[in-house]
Amino acid sequence: MKDKHSQNGVAIALFAVLALATTIARAADPLPSWNDGPAKQSIVKFVDKVTQPTSPDFVPVPQRIATFDNDGTLWAEQPMYVQMFFVLDRVKALAPQHPEWKDKEPFASVLKGDVKAALAGGERPLMEMLMATHTGNTTEEFELIVKEWIATAKHPVTKRPYTEMVYQPMLEVLAYLRANGFKTFIVSGGGIEFMRPWTEKVYGVPPEQVIGSSVKTRFELRDVKPVLVRLPELNFVDDNAGKVVGINQHIGRRPIAAFGNSDGDLQMLQWTAAGPGARFSLYVHHDDAAREWAYDRQSSIGRLDKGLDEAKAKGWTVVSMKDDWKLIFARPE
Amino acid sequence: MKDKHSQNGVAIALFAVLALATTIARAADPLPSWNDGPAKQSIVKFVDKVTQPTSPDFVPVPQRIATFDNDGTLWAEQPMYVQMFFVLDRVKALAPQHPEWKDKEPFASVLKGDVKAALAGGERPLMEMLMATHTGNTTEEFELIVKEWIATAKHPVTKRPYTEMVYQPMLEVLAYLRANGFKTFIVSGGGIEFMRPWTEKVYGVPPEQVIGSSVKTRFELRDVKPVLVRLPELNFVDDNAGKVVGINQHIGRRPIAAFGNSDGDLQMLQWTAAGPGARFSLYVHHDDAAREWAYDRQSSIGRLDKGLDEAKAKGWTVVSMKDDWKLIFARPE
Fold first, then answer.
1. Which of A218, A290, B67, B264 is the most buried (most CB within 10 A)?
2. Phi, psi for residue A27 in degrees, rounded to 5
3. CB of A218 within 8 A of CB of A233?
4. Backbone phi, psi, residue A59, to 5°
């Protein structure tokens, strides 16, 4: 009996040591949702290179700027951009105040539930819906509408809140970079005021580090109370070359690392890669039809064609969601 | 003898205690260039109120946003905006490449040294000079030009570099707020790319926290090298109501403290004051003709008229440079 107890004791002690070692290893791994492979290694290698004081590529903290596309890079963009679901829901919510929409396209199709028909007309009807649902109110009113919607709306396929359709491995990259002195920015074609109400909570990115497309606003005094009114006029389109213009406007210095997933991010990645010293450009490649969606060169949403060629030619990191990521979506809280 | 020694000993000890107490008091005073008075007290009281965890007006760190006008609030703006001196110097520097300027106003007057005549025509010739001196190059080229100019140019009256024409008491406010968890932003009518090359060194404000007026830029690939070209077209005028629009665009949340010196800052101060919780709006009043310049309601540069009335009506802090500031300009390094 005594021997058996003793053996058990040793086994328990060994198990405890192993468990502890695993915990330590996990704590030491800043990217636990990434499989070991060239993509993960390239990120860690770059961060080491620019943060170790003895490194020839050392970059002082204030210059550690990293920019991230949002749709398809930090959260899912299929079967449609999240902001598009917001537009459709807002058309339905506002319909009682617009009886004329019943007979007016593209609104009529939305109200009949025929999204495909509503979007068939291309950019013009889309812009009409955007303006009808995004403007006419004050910035504070719009912020409340977004906050309420994002807290309650669910993704049509996964039935999860959109803020849980964010990629766990990318949340880890954001946190890892910040832990290493980086300022992380979002640079998205999406609406700047559609993102700001929730990016701080979901990504740890404060409103002043969010860059996006915008409408013009007008300052007004309403009964001595100052407000900003959102006008039905485009101010800035933060996509393609616009991303570089937006980065220069908002940040005023060149990022040293940039993350995207589509041709719309290509100029941002080129701009980032073209600076002096160590540079990092990364594409997330959607190749996991089982756990997410698989799309690239032919997709109308998030097309990755020229960018994929340039990434390969220039040796940028291309992440295979299928092979490089242990899991896709954020862990439930 | 012994008594005398003993008395001396006491005196020395007393002196040491007094010296120590003075040192401690000075170290504890975050605003040593401010005379004790209602202006200084209002700043300290506000900071205490929003930072002490038990205060009913406590504000979490991420929401501690403070915005500062630049010309006349952080540095001198007389006898002319600093950027205007830059324009005139650039006209002279570029003249050899523009032989036609010899006979073309307003350039001809500048080259003859008649600044008054050059500026007499109002906004249109001014804009012509601005565009001729601020655009046509890349963002990187323009940055170098500004850096070189600001490092060498001298103020015509004081003969000091412009970056020493910054107000020491305001540098202390910037540092004091940052030490208390504030993010400090510049919100200026001046050119955003004219300020960014030096604000980090001079004010401790990094480029991404500088908001200003801007021209449009265009992304280009030059022999595969991406550049942003500065176009002769206004993008944004960050003055008056534009300051609120700019704050919303860049920061995406309302400041809790704002500092200005002219009617061009009034909407920013109104916007800041109108938010919930503790708020702080401050005007620097130029009333010190002996040490700086005295001007307000009648001045064409930095006019403070409506703003002065509103500040008094609303109980905002109005700083008398004459009475509230022990010294005006930055201490030589």
1. B67
2. -60, -35
3. no
4. -120, 125
Provide the 3-class DSSP secondary structure of residue A199: helix
Task: Give the pTM.
Answer: 0.91
Residues of chain A with Cβ-Cβ distance to B248 below 8 Å are 139, 217, 228
What does the block give as tokens for B67?
């915005």
Nearest CA in chain B to A184: B208
Asked if residue A307 lies in contact with residue A260, where contact means CB atoms within 8 angstroms, the answer is yes
Q: How many CB pairs under 8 A join A and B?
A: 82
- Beta strands at A317-320 and B65-68: parallel, antiparallel or unpaired: unpaired
Q: With an 8 Å Cβ cutoff, is B200 touching chain A? A: yes
Interface membership of A200 toward B (CB under 8 Å):
yes
| B208 near A CB under 8 A | yes
Residue ranges of chain A whose pLDDT lies below 70: 1-27, 332-333
A218 contact residues in B (CB cutoff 8 A): 241, 245
In tens, the pLDDT along B43-82 reads 999 999 999 999 999 999 999 999 999 999 999 999 999 9
CA-closest candidate to residue A270, choices A295, A306, A319: A306
Please report, as a single letter, which amino acid is at residue A96: P
List of chain B residues whose C-beta atoms are within 8 Å of the C-beta of residue A214: 249
Non-local CB neighbours of B168 within 8 Å, separated by 6+ positions: B33, B325, B327, B328, B329, B330, B331
Q: How far apart are CA B250 and CA B252, in angstroms?
A: 6
CA A172/CA A40 separation, integer angstroms? 11
Helices (H), A181-328: 192-203, 241-250, 266-273, 306-314, 321-324
CA-CA-CA-CA torsion sign (A306, A308, A309, A310): positive
CB within 8 Å: B208 and A183: yes
Model pLDDT, residue A221 = 96
Sheet holding A280-285, edge to edge: A225-236, A210-222, A183-191, A65-68, A257-260, A280-285, A317-320
Contact A252 B196 (CB under 8 A): yes
Q: How far is CA A91 from the centre of its chain?
A: 25
Residues constituting chain A: 333
Q: d(Cα B234, Cα B229) in Å, to the nearest integer?
A: 13
CA distance B156 to A85: 59
C-alpha A260/C-alpha A321 separation (Å) is 13
Query: Does the pLDDT value for residue B24 go beyond 60?
Result: no
What local confidence, expressed as pLDDT, does residue B331 receive? Answer: 75
Q: Which residue has the higher pLDDT, B110 or A14?
A: B110
CA separation (Å) from A74 to A24, A45, A283, B191? 28, 21, 11, 33
pLDDT of residue A22: 53
pLDDT for B4 beyond 60: no
Across chain A, where does the E strand assignment appear? 65-68, 183-191, 210-222, 225-236, 257-260, 280-285, 317-320
Instruction: Give yes or no for A245 touching B (CB within 8 A).
Output: yes
Nearest-CA distance from A197 to chain B in Å? 9
Question: Pairing mode, if any, of strands B225-236 and B210-222?
Answer: antiparallel
